[in-house]
Amino acid sequence: MAVTALAVALVLIGIVGLLSWQGQQVAEWVKQRVGEVQVFLEPADDIAIERLRTQLVGQVGVDSVEFISTEQAAVIFREEFGDEADVFEDELYLPASFRVRLDPDHAVSDSLVQFQQRVQSWSKVDTVAFEQSLLTRVERNVRVYSMMGFGIGLLVVLAALLLVGNTVRLTIYARRLLIRTMKLVGATDSFIRRPFLVEGVLQGLLAGLVGSFIVWLLYSGLQEFVVGLGAEGWPAGSAFLTLFGLTMLGVLLGWLASWIAVRRFIKKVRLS
Amino acid sequence: MESTLVELRNVAVSYAGHSGERLKVAGDLSLTLEKGEMVYLIGPTGSGKSTLLKLLYMDLKPDFGIVRVGHYQSDRIADKEIPYLRRSLGVVFQDFQLLSDRSAFENIAFAMYATGKRGRAVKERVMQALARVGLSHRAHAKPHEMSGGEQQRACIARAIVNEPVLLLADEPTGNLDPRVADEIQKVLIKLHKEGMAVLMATHDYRLVKEFPARTMALVKGRLVEVDPETL
After folding, report:
1. N or C: which end of chain A has fewer CB within 10 A?
2. CATH classification at residue B23
3. Are A179 and A265 in contact (CB under 8 A)?
């Protein structure tokens, strides 16, 4: 019974954890894309362009820098506007630019504004632009969804811990006569606790293995059917490490729940 | 060498009722028990006999006064020392409290395992304890296969297997018919004659008169010595 409750708790924690992690990855990806900075250039020769690229790459928080020549800009323009781009067909009027992507920690409004102001003052730079209003909206939404996700995750984890705690408490209560007898004949508290803790650890290990297997099945299935989910893979770099962590969490939970329940019970139990 | 085994000095004790209020049990208890002595503790139901025994195995601590058992004293004992006090005591209850899934032998051996004893000595000591209470032939019977008298003998064997200096018996014959009660009483008298101190709480005055010993009555929260013949 305790193994089932622990396994259910671990599946809930595992799935909520993985989905939260996925959500965070997606949010960061969106922020990074929305937070792309376009550095439009004045007419410049190759040496100046290369110098600017080196300067940009050297800036704190810059993840990637991509040069877009006037020709490439025209191609992109034609791809995006189709037939309507024909009116400008013979004229290379779009400026060359750098598309700068910052890492997730720096792809936030404040950092981007500072970055914009700094780069704007450089020679051969015409305009530095990014979607500030969209980014602000995205940041606000990410914050709201993160808080909601955190709240739901917290509730799930609390429910899981309560489920485990109550189940272990019931299991120990069922053996109250055993504990009472041990106390009566002079067993020390640590001696009484020991078998329950060993049992808790073993139950946690078994529940961890079962729970990890179920999480692996569910998450692998989700990765098959939900587009884009598979691309991010698993937290901690591999499925093995993630599920090993979940199994160890099971061991910890089993030990902790047993420790709390048996400690309380030993204190409370009366001998007659 | 100190001959007094148990001492209660001006003890007042109360416990928390169901609604949290303090219920006073005794106001001024004083008692001494010598090594190897047998004493009856009598009084009507609810007079505080079990509470007094709880004070001795320190399941309850006094509000005032001092309880001393051997070299353990209620106002100085740390919680972690209480198990060691209990190893010097044997306790027997009215309702047996045997582990239902274990045989008499296993129930008694459990008392030794629980105090860290292992090996061949456990088997020898358990068989000795069973022999002392006349239950060797039922060593492998489970509690539901034993009569009330046999279960109480198993409890006594469990209580004495660690060779305590004091046996506390809380209404040990309360659930038994008079004939079986007499048999159990004879077992307790035998242990007393072998040198063990016995403090037995009972409201069975017939037993006290039939097997006389020093008798203390709990009257209105005080202990008064009475002559068993006058009961």
Report:
1. N
2. 3.40.50.300
3. yes
Does residue A157 sit in the same domain as residue A264? yes
On chain B, the residues whose CB falls within 8 A of the CB of A271 are 54, 57, 59, 91
The tens digit of pLDDT for each residue in A81-125 reads: 776 666 666 666 788 899 998 887 788 888 888 888 888 888 888
- Which residues in A lie closer than 8 A to residue B114 (C-beta atoms)? 181-182, 185-187, 191-192
If asked whether residues A217 and A235 sit together in one domain, one would say yes
Across the interface, of B89, B97, B158, the residue whose CB is closest to A180 is: B97
CA proximity to A203, closest of A159, A251, A241: A251
Whether A144 is in a domain gets the answer no
pLDDT of A91? 62
Regions of chain A where pLDDT drops below 50: none
Average pLDDT over residues B48-65: 92
Domain limits for position B87: 4-230
Residues A72 and A120 in one domain: yes
Q: What is the pLDDT of residue B130?
A: 96
Let me know whether A6 and A45 are in one domain: no
Task: Provide DSSP, A21-82.
Answer: HHHHHHHHHHHHHHT-EEEEE-S--HHHHHHHHHHHHTSTTEEEEEEE-HHHHHHHHHHHHG
Number of domains in chain A: 2
Contacts across the A-B interface (CB distance below 8 Å) = 56
Of B53, B87, B100, the CB nearest to A186: B87
pLDDT of residue A54: 92
Residue-range definition of the domain harbouring residue A61: 36-130
Of B89, B97, B115, the CB nearest to A177: B97
Q: Which of A185, A193, A270 to mutate to test the interface with B (most CBs of B within 10 A)?
A: A185
In terms of domains, do A225 and A176 share one?
A: yes
**A193 vs B contacts (CB less than 8 Å):** none
Q: Name every chain A residue with its beta carbon within 8 A of the beta carbon of B162.
A: 185-186
What is the 8-class DSSP label of residue B100?
Answer: T
DSSP reduced 3-state for B146? coil
pLDDT value, residue A174: 85
Task: Pull the structure tokens for residue B68.
Answer: 């001393």
CA nearest to A109, candidates A153, A86, A140: A140
DSSP class of A167:
H
Amino acid, res. A7: A
Check CB contact under 8 Å for A272 and B170: yes
